[in-house]
Amino acid sequence: MELKEYWEIIKKDRKVFLGVIVLIILTSIMYFSLRPDSYDVSLALGITRNGTQQTTDYRYDDFYRLQADEKFAETIVEWLKNPRTVSDIYSKAGMDVDDRSLRQLAKMLKPEKLSAQMVSVSFSSSDGNSAKKIAGAISEIVSKNVETLNENQNEATWFRVIGQNPVIIKNQGNVWMIFVFPMLFGIFIGLWAVMIRHYLK
């Protein structure tokens, strides 16, 4: 069948073709209008020390300190992937996560080591106020865990974690998500609908 014949079929059933496209676009608009608000949050955790070890060779101290910082940043990332830590964080923020599975808890936070002195934590929240509470709880729980590790060692130059102000952005549908992608999908489905209708006649 030539392209001209396909075009004639579409013209003949253009109401069906256009109707499918409009229906899918309207469905997309309704979905983005009615869906609950959500917020993307990014929190940076800075890793520092309470002091500097006294040594005759400052380069020696800096080299091993950087190595230790690298490993400790990795430890913090693993903490934030642990369901126990995540549960403590959300409980501290006043949120109930008892109905979540271990797998779900492990995926609620997305930690990433950016450098030896910086760990980034990303997560989603249903409202801005809860996002701030969760971010504060992350800083507090991680700091508490760091202090607990030093209770027996009592290191004067032990690690300290400082949580920065979180970046909170409300999720909003863009033109591509609301109109363009649904329109392209509608054209695809509309073509199939017209062709099936044509061959069933």
- The name CATH uses for the topology of the largest domain is Alpha-Beta Plaits
Low-confidence stretches: none
Distance between the termini: 17 Å
Note the main sheet: 5 strands, antiparallel
- CATH structural architecture of the largest domain: 2-Layer Sandwich
Strand content: 15-25%
Report on the structure:
The chain is α+β, with helices and mostly antiparallel strands and 201 residues long. It folds into two domains: 61 residues, no CATH class; 132 residues, Alpha-Beta Plaits (2-Layer Sandwich), CATH 3.30.70. Helices cover 58% and strands 17% of the residues. It has seven helices and five strands. Strands 1, 2, 3, 4 and 5 form a five-stranded antiparallel beta sheet that branches. Helix 4 packs across helix 6.
Topology:
Elements: H1 3-12, H2 14-34, E1 39-49, H3 58-79, H4 83-92, H5 102-106, E2 110-115, E3 118-125, H6 128-149, E4 159-163, E5 167-170, H7 175-200
Antiparallel strand pairs: 1-3, 1-4, 1-5, 2-3
Which short descriptors sum up this protein?
5 strands, 7 helices, elongated, 58% helix, alpha+beta, Alpha-Beta Plaits, five-stranded antiparallel β-sheet, 201 residues
Summarize the structure.
Helix content is 58%, strand content 17%. It has 201 residues and is α+β, with helices and mostly antiparallel strands.
